[in-house]
Amino acid sequence: MENLHFIPDSGFMNSFIKSAEEISGQGQNRYIIYKGNLFQKPSIPRFVKHEEIIVAPYGSILFKHTTRNLNQYKRIFFHFLSNEMCDFILRNKNLNAKFYWAFWGADMYLPPQLFKNEIYDEQSISYFNKHDSFVSTGNGFFDLIKQLKRKLTPTRFQKKQLINRSGAIKRIDFFLHYNKSDHELLLKLFDTQTKHLPFFYFEYDYSKLSDEKDLNRELINKKFNFGNSTVIQLGHSASLTNNHFCLLQHFSFLKNENIKIICPLSYGDMRYAKAVAEKGKSIFGEKFIPLTDYLSKENYAALLSRIDIAVMNHLRTEAAGNIFMMLAMGKKVLLNSKSNLFRFLVEQHVQLFDLDNQEAKNYFSLIQPLNDVAQERNRKIITDCFSAQQAVSNLKQIFVS
């Protein structure tokens, strides 16, 4: 067996596993989901569908048994560089295997207490400090435990986490990501010689998204009572890195216009979601629609097909899937120009807009859609950059590196 993969229980992994098996051959890859409760029996993965998956919580007897013979692997992949994986790397840094980090976005900025200025704007930092960086699950008992743990965790422990992360990153051989700007940032933030290899998880055939005429689109239109309003999406999750509060204030001049604002808040920090919903309602009233229930993949695509303008205020790479889908559907997209994702898309000659641009501050300019030429160009760029063929080509290169 050549390759060991530590993976999250995410639907993104299904197409990756399929490609990995086809390229390297069956029996050459082992996949371990290591997140979970040590005191519970291993459960069946919720999103990853593959018979060879092993669920082994980090530190458990099963995990130790499953990883007892690490010398058999030529490559070890970390699909999200969690604190557990940093610990694993430091414990096994003398292995001959090459280490690969498949970058997701948040995993360069842990612990978040030490990266506030890199990922939050001023209003988000204020919220972060007020709530002790505590992320609510919505369950009162677990929230209390997490809150106490956060409050009692000394700064020196957070700094120790960063030291461990720095040591782990120094050992990593390859940084896997489609955006070289994030690799350049990594080299600035950490002492490492890790090399960059292009990579992304193939999840959508972007060439077909424009065909979402959809049986479901009309149902979505009625469900949210969009009518003939201009529909604007703010952010993509209940994560503070969306920097919602600044966005809501930024677009408050639209409160008397014929708009509807959809704000996805169905996963992430539930207390933060409530705060965003209350702020949005206080400014926009019934024009603000907090999306707190999960939608199926088909219904979410139908919702995006009805949205006219997508607005994201992330300072780091985040929400790429949402953004790429919107661009492939010909939608108008506004991003924070400080993000590396903005830089990447500009380098690819995608037509998108800076949140600080004057066009974002005038209603009539804002609601003007992209012309047909720009829509088609954006669609082709996204489709070509993130095709199934390109994903396979990238993975073939990785497996011979």
DSSP strand count: 13
Q: Tell me what the CATH architecture of the largest domain is.
A: 3-Layer(aba) Sandwich
CATH topology of the largest domain: Rossmann fold
The first-level CATH class of the largest domain is given as Alpha Beta
Radius of gyration: 22 Å
Categorize the overall geometry. globular
Q: Largest sheet at a glance?
A: 7 strands, parallel
* The CATH homologous superfamily of the largest domain: Glycogen Phosphorylase B
Relative helix content: 40-55%
Sheet/helix structural class: alpha/beta
Order of neighbouring strands in the sheet with most strands:
3-2-1-4-5-6-7
- The fraction of residues assigned to DSSP E strands is 5-15%
Kindly report how far apart the N and C termini lie: 16 Å
Alpha plus pi helix count: 17
How many structural domains in the coordinates?
Answer: 2
Sequence stretches where pLDDT stays below 50 over 5 or more residues: none
Question: Could you outline the blueprint of secondary structure elements for this entry?
Answer:
Layout (H helix, E strand, L loop, with lengths): L2 E5 L4 H13 L4 E5 L19 E3 L5 H6 L8 E5 L3 H9 L6 E5 L13 H4 L2 H9 L9 H13 L2 H17 L2 E3 L3 H10 L5 E3 L17 H9 L6 E5 L9 H7 L8 E6 L5 H15 L3 E4 L5 H10 L2 E3 L8 H9 L3 E4 L4 H8 L5 E2 L8 H4 L5 H14 L2 H12 L2
Parallel strand pairs: 1-2, 1-4, 2-3, 4-5, 5-6, 6-7, 8-9, 8-11, 9-10, 11-12, 12-13
Helix pairs in contact: 1-17, 3-7, 9-12, 10-11, 13-16
